Amino acid sequence: MDRDKSWDIIASFREYCRSQYKDIHPAGESRDPLFQGGLREFWGIPTVPDAVTALVRTPRMLKHVLRHVYHTWARLHGECDFDDLLLVNTLRYCAPEAFGFILENSDSLRSEVGEGAARQGSDELSPRQKALQQRWDDCVQDVVWDTNAGLVLLFFLMPSAETFIQGTAPAAGNAPQGMRHLAPTDYWHRIITEEVDDEAPDQLVLQAIDDWTEEPSPKKDLPLLLHKSQRGGDVWEHFSARTPRSLLLLLAEQLIDLILDEEMADAKGDHPGLIAVWRTASRLLSHTPENEQWLGTQLKKLMPRSLGFSNDLYYYWGGHKYAIVSHEGANRLGVQMLNIAKGVFRPGSPESLLNGLGTKHPYAIRHLVAPPGLVSDGQPLPCDPANWYWLGPVLLGAANHDTQTIIPQIVNLVFDAKRKVQRDPHTGTREESVFLTINDELLKVVFRSCEKEVMEILVDGFTPTKEIPQEHVFQVRECAKRRLEELSDSESDNGTTQDQ
Question: pLDDT tens, 309-319?
Fold first, then answer.
């Protein structure tokens, strides 16, 4: 079959199929130079057109390839990369052994390059390279088609395979919907099964991104999709390059509002959609004063309604190693958190604290006083007793109003849990025990003038909860009793000293 004529037919078919539907193609035209030749042709390396026309040896083969692609594209249009679909079916009908090789080794061929990359330019092959090379050699032994052409298509479809099999760096190009991806969508599986079984198809997410970018309203589909669908958040993150980085914090803010309005005090900062936006923002945004100002505004908005959500936001966006603010900015925001809390939570208004606690943040008070993950020169930030003297009376006042909500918060604030795993010498089974001990630093930071009152509440008014089981309640009571005895002995000693 004339190879030039064959390619003319394929190229026209490709253009027709890609323009047949009004889909968004996230790769755009970026793959065209690689697909059509580009630098590979300049350096005399076999191109994709060369490989395809070498494999499509008869008009019958060409008919089978194009027919299968046409009918499959009618079901998958916009949900996979068209070029991958075309080349997979070229291998299916014209190099079936290569197709079978991909079918059996798809996960290995798409895994991270890892040890293969370390051996580029080396004569010694890694065990993985040796195994894949041997499988390929066994697969193509005595085949009637051009094995070099088959490798060209394999490397185009799965660029990591070029490093594994040949030890050379791949020329991958941009393929957001390429079958090289395992997650969040396994496009190879999608092409093979010819089905889109998703709650958030690519076109739905891509259209939502473009519509919201044009008019970034909270009523648009994108923030609603990120709020309601974990799958939608994963797909958005995969295509997040389409969202201008200048709009990322606005998208986060709209999502925060949706989460807060639905979950109220139980809202959490590890919401899947919000985490997807956080990962993208932390990767793309520099540490700027504008980011710090934005985060401060969110914290001030959240704390009265959900202390736990406010803590979470501070942890991920401000105190985490992948924060959007500098370490100095995180420290300033920590001071702002303290000042916001002092203004919101008042001794004479227990509802001001209770309304923001909810049921899903048992460590909300502790994380406010001692935010997890914040480091200064490799060491945890110290608690400054002068900062938190006001919080003890607020907690005790709220405890008198709602014991069941506040006492677990106090326990998690002033007790540390130490886990010890032991193996039974007779059965060999592992048993984990939890030992609770008083954290004197935090106890004195918050309750420096009312330690005795706190211990009395823990002895008399503490009952088991979902978060704190019966065995822990027993340990808390015993610790509190011992501390009361110590305080009583100390008072007796002080009284004796004064009498003398």
Answer: 999 999 999 98
